[in-house]
TrEMBL record:
SMART domains: AAA (SM00382). This is Phosphonate transport system ATP-binding protein. Gene3D superfamilies: P-loop containing nucleotide triphosphate hydrolases. It holds the Pfam family ABC_tran. One of its GO terms (molecular function) is ATP binding. Coiled coil: none annotated. One of its GO terms (cellular component) is membrane.
């Protein structure tokens, strides 16, 4: 469960990111965040795992407040939260397998990670993730040899390798053409349905959000304009968001 209580983010003491956000996302939900550029979508997502720190308000994960945690406790919380970025965030010169294994770093000591001391169970989880996104035939390929869609599938496998309860995805399809984007969305759908992983995804393509997400949260000027089940969102409502 994710809960934000009166959360405000201000960058550099002057630029508003999000303002007084109250939001509760239950386990297993598939939530799409939409809204105009600069509306606060990215800030909202990054606040959930405290990549961005609020100036006001509280963030809870599974009922536990995380806003006041020390670095080591926050690291433990973060390893249950996968993050998929728009630009894939891969080590380009490393193999698919090496990239996916990075999902295990949060579970290792700094010495273990320095020497790449992965356990058999880490390899097992990496292979499971790679299979889940259908990249078995690319396991030893270098990331920079892959297409954009394949790179994003590696990023999803890496997130899965963390064994997360939550995956946050920040515009994961906006660098991809529509067909490839739909393919990626289908992977998120499968993961959500099969593994019951909570998915919160920022999408500037409203049609994709309406097609795949169960719930839509619209943000503008850092505030929630509406928060509804997808079936309750009509064209008029969407138009108001982008006015
Ligand atoms: N690192 C930062 N430093 C300063 N201001 C920032 C930073 N990140 C975001 N902002 C500002 O915070 C506000 C919200 O931005 P945010 O990126 O969260 O919106 P967004 O809805 O994700 O937009 P986009 O769709 O363009 O990515 C904007 O005014 C933006 O300029």
């Amino acid at each position: 469960m994710i809960k934000l209580e009166d959360v405000t983010v201000i960058y550099n003491n002057k630029t508003l990111g999000i303002k007084d956000i109250n939001l509760e996302i239950k386990k297993g939900e598939f939530v799409g965040i939409i809204g105009p550029s600069g509306g606060g979508k990215s800030t909202l997502l990054k606040t959930i795992n405290l990549l961005v720190k609020p100036v006001k308000g509280k963030v809870y994960i599974d009922g536990r407040e995380i806003t006041n945690l020390d670095t080591s406790s926050l690291r433990k919380v973060r390893r249950q939260i996968g993050f998929v970025f728009q630009d894939y965030n891969l080590v380009e010169r490393s193999s698919v397998l090496a990239n996916v294994l990075l999902g295990r770093l949060g579970y290792m000591s700094s010495l273990q990670s320095f020497f790449n001391l992965y356990k058999d169970s880490d390899y097992y989880l990496a292979l499971q993730g790679i299979k889940e996104v259908g990249l078995e035939d690319k396991i030893f390929a270098r990331a920079d040899r892959l297409s954009g869609g394949q790179k994003q599938r590696v990023a999803i496998a890496k997130a899965l390798c963390q064994q997360p309860g939550i995956i946050l995805a920040d515009e994961p399809v906006s660098n991809l053409d529509l067909k490839v984007g739909e393919n990626i969305m289908n992977y998120f759908k499968k993961i959500n349905e099969k593994q019951k992983i909570t998915i919160v995804i920022n999408l500037h393509d409203v049609n994709l959000a309406l097609k795949y997400c169960h719930r839509i949260v619209a943000l503008s000027k850092g505030q929630v304009l509406f928060d509804k089940k997808t079936g309750e969102v009509d064209e008029q409502l969407v138009q108001k968001v982008y006015l």
